[in-house]
Amino acid sequence: MSRYDRLRQIQQLDPVKDCCQIVHLMSGYEFPWDITRSLEIALFRTYCVPSISALLDKTGEFRHRTQKRYDDTGLLVAEIMKWGYDSDRGRAAIVRMNNIHGKFKIANEDFLYVLSTFIYEPIRWIDRFGWRKMCETERLASYYFWREVGERMQIQNIPKTYEEFELYNLNYERENFRYSDTNRRVGEATRDLFLSWFPSFLRWAIEPAVYAMLDETMRSAFGFPDPPQLLKSAVPMILKIRGQGLRLFPSKKQPAFYTDFPNISYPNGYQLEDLGPPHMLESLKQNQDG
Known about the structure:
- This protein has one domain.
- 67% of the residues lie in helices and 0% in strands.
- The chain has helices spanning 5-11, 19-30, 32-46, 50-59, 61-64, 66-83, 88-101, 108-129, 136-152, 162-176, 181-196, 203-213, 216-222, 229-246, 281-289.
- Helix 2 crosses helix 9 (136-152).
- The longest helix has 22 residues, at 108-129.
């Protein structure tokens, strides 16, 4: 398969009725690394909103089980992208998310914003750093896919078009991104998680690079310092060079979903019933079975 054969395959599909297949191909074959990184940034962005960070800070999951919280979220999202929202595994993952979220009072507008980041952050990331930009079919498929997931999460008032939802995303950030102490605590826990993946002697050098991955509005909302100007330029440049280099390699023959690899929390594999805050697991099992 040549580098662009799968793109041509995607362009023959319908972004509405084939959105699950398109998202499967994008996240497992075309852009697996980029989509994982962009969704990390997407979730990081949501912590810039005091109403969201306050709830996350209150649960204590970010202070005490940051890696498990990260892995659980990544696995649930990847289950849906890999199998589709109407598959047995996709439906079970959505039920699991709904049961976890149902334990908390979360405003619909916050749900809407988080959902919007799952559409637009990967598009923006891949347009900047991917080996190619997303085609129109992929952009629309992402919107229709996550809109359907949102419907199954009982999120209300999801905008009816790609353009309207993107405008909601931008307006929400303009109105709600601001500094709070809970932003900072959740942001620091997430930053420290990223740093924990590197040897301790390198973390002092990696930390400013993490800040360079965040835009100015995010750094302000977290109270993070500005990185050196050299890093602000170098980090995006390195990512762009990586993307351009990938054009020289053939298409992936095997999928590379987040669920396909061992992770720190579940080195020997996982079951859906393992995912969620430990103190909720028994009640979550009862809800899932019910």
